[in-house]
Backbone:
C-alpha cells in the first residue's frame, strides 16, 4: 500500500512538472489544485460531551480561476481515542464501574471516535503583495455532510452483545446530518513549483441527529438532535496542475 501511494505521488508530481510551463510569478493563473491536509481538532457544542480532541486527515480537488476564486470538493476522515460517552457499557459493568466479561473478569473494551465529512467549497485567494499574485490570504466556506460514531472493540470477545454486527448498531451512537464550515488562512504557490502549502484556522458546524432505530443501553430509540462543533488548525500540501503554455517555457 505504501509503495502504491508513493507511486501515485511521484506520478502526480511528474504530471505537474510536465505541465508547469506557465509563469505564476507575474500574474494570477487558472489551475487545478489537489490538496492533502491534516488538522488537530477540538470539539464544541454537543460534540464536546461525547468526544475529546480528534485527528482529521483531509483531501480535496479544486479549480482556481484567474480571478483567484476557488471552487472544489473535499472530504476528511475523523478519528481519535478521546471518547467521553461510555454509557453504552453500563449494562456490562459492576458496582465499581468495571466492565466484566463472561468469565466474570474485567474485559478489555476500547472505544474510538470514527467519522467523516464531505463538502463542496468556495473560496478566494487575496494577494498580500509580498509574494506572487497566486498566493495570499485564503478564505473558504463550505457545506455538506458530517457523520460520526463510536467504534467499540472488545479485544478478546468477552462480551457477546458487543461482538455481533446486528447488536453493535444499538451501541455505536451513529450520528449524521448537514454541516457547514469556514476557513481563514494562507495559501502559498511557489514560483519554483516545488513548495506549495496552506495553513489556517478551520471551524466546522454539524447539524446532526442520532440515526439508530433502537439504543440498547436506554431501552428505546434515540431522536436526539445535536449541534456538533469542531475547530482547529489545518496544515496542508498542494499539488498544482498548471496548463501548458504553448510558446514559452518558464521554470523559475
Residues:
Amino acid at each position: 500500500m505504501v509503495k502504491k501511494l508513493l507511486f501515485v505521488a511521484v506520478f502526480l508530481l511528474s504530471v505537474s512538472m510536465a505541465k508547469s510551463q506557465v509563469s505564476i510569478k507575474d500574474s494570477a493563473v487558472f489551475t487545478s489544485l489537489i490538496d492533502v491536509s491534516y488538522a488537530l481538532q477540538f470539539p464544541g457544542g454537543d460534540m464536546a460531551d461525547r468526544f475529546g480532541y480528534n485527528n482529521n486527515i483531509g483531501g480535496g480537488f479544486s479549480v482556481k480561476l484567474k480571478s483567484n476564486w476557488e471552487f472544489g470538493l473535499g472530504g476528511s476522515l475523523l478519528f481519535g481515542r478521546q471518547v467521553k460517552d461510555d454509557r453504552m457499557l453500563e449494562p456490562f459493568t459492576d458496582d465499581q464501574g468495571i466492565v466484566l466479561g463472561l468469565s466474570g473478569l474485567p474485559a478489555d473494551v476500547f472505544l474510538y471516535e470514527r467519522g467523516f465529512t464531505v463538502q463542496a467549497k468556495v473560496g478566494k485567494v487575496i494577494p498580500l503583495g509580498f509574494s506572487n499574485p497566486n498566493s495570499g490570504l485564503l478564505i473558504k466556506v463550505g457545506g455538506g455532510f458530517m457523520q460520526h460514531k463510536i467504534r467499540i472493540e472488545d479485544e478478546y470477545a468477552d462480551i457477546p452483545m458487543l461482538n455481533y454486527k446486528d447488536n453493535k448498531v444499538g451501541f455505536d451512537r451513529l450520528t449524521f446530518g448537514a454541516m457547514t464550515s469556514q476557513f481563514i488562512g494562507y495559501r502559498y504557490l511557489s514560483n519554483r513549483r516545488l513548495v506549495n502549502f496552506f495553513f489556517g484556522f478551520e471551524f466546522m458546524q454539524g447539524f446532526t441527529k442520532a440515526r439508530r432505530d433502537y439504543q440498547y443501553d436506554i431501552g428505546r430509540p434515540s431522536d436526539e438532535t445535536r449541534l456538533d462543533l469542531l475547530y482547529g488548525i489545518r496544515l496542508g500540501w498542494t499539488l498544482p496542475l498548471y496548463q501548458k503554455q504553448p510558446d514559452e517555457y518558464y521554470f523559475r
The CA atoms of residues 28 and 67 lie 7 Å apart. The first strand starts at residue 31 and ends at 45. Confidence is low (pLDDT under 50) at residues 8-21, 246-252. Residues 2-19 form the longest helix (18 residues).
